[in-house]
Amino acid sequence: MEKIIPAILTTDIADLQHKLEKIRGFADWVQIDIMDGKFVNNISIVLEEISQIEISKDFSLEAHLMVLNPKTYFLQCQKNGIKRVIFHIEAADNVRDVLSEAAKFDFQIGIALNPKTPVQKITPYADSMDVVVLMSVNPGLQGQKFIPETLDKIRELKKLVPHMKIEVDGGINLDNIKKVSDTGGDYLVVGSGLFNTDNIQERFKELQSKI
After folding, report:
1. Which of 15, 28, 33, 152 is catalytic?
2. Which residues, at least 6 apart from 191, have a Cβ–Cβ distance to it below 8 Å?
3. 26-50, pLDDT tens digit by residue?
4. Strand ranges (DSSP E) for the chain?
5. Is 33 a catalytic residue?
6. How many domains does the chain have?
7. Catalytic-role residue among 169, 175, 186, 198
8. In CATH, what number is assigned to the domain containing residue 140?
9. Is 198 a catalytic residue?
């Protein structure tokens, strides 16, 4: 079954806690964006702050590392109880080395591809990872429009690596979530399409009903 994963991008620990409280009880997974101001222009909350929020233990956390040198973040991810860690193929000088480091820890590992990165880049590493994340916006900002060519990348990836779980991240909303799901998206990451509403629980149910 396709799974909706709320995404939180913030610089403020109080805002993070507020958003987690808003989705507690109906969302089991949540993605927290980690940005270093180098791989992308913006910065975000740092990993160490997540552990200060007791409510974070109510969720399976996914850390989306939009950072350079992603393997240097893995130990803190483990300490924070992160269940799945995503790093960008464009941020890794040696992808195999990053995957080898990730294998020392208990979390699932995934690789994200920016919109312009061909899906063929992932095939050499398919047996060493749990999920591919196809970015359907350029990373670093919430509220961007879904890039429709992402649907072609989903289809292509399904042909190349049929067993691979595909997560789609960026610009997903009520208007396009069914199409992304029907095309082959397994995990559907929703940020502003969920949180920019007065009744977040009702919006979550609406999104879920589409898939």
Report:
1. 33
2. 6, 7, 8, 9, 142, 143, 170
3. 999 999 999 999 999 889 988 988 9
4. 3-8, 29-35, 60-66, 84-88, 108-113, 131-135, 165-169, 187-190
5. yes
6. 1
7. 169
8. 3.20.20.70
9. no
Q: Half-sphere exposure of 104 toward its Cβ, with a 13 Å CA cutoff?
A: 11
Range of the domain at 26: 3-210
pLDDT tens readout for residues 65-115: 999 999 999 999 999 999 999 999 999 999 999 999 999 999 999 999 999
Residue for token pair 């799974």: 3
Crossing angle (nearest 10°) for helices 13-23 and 200-210 = 60
Tell me, yes or no, if the pTM score tops 0.90.
Answer: yes
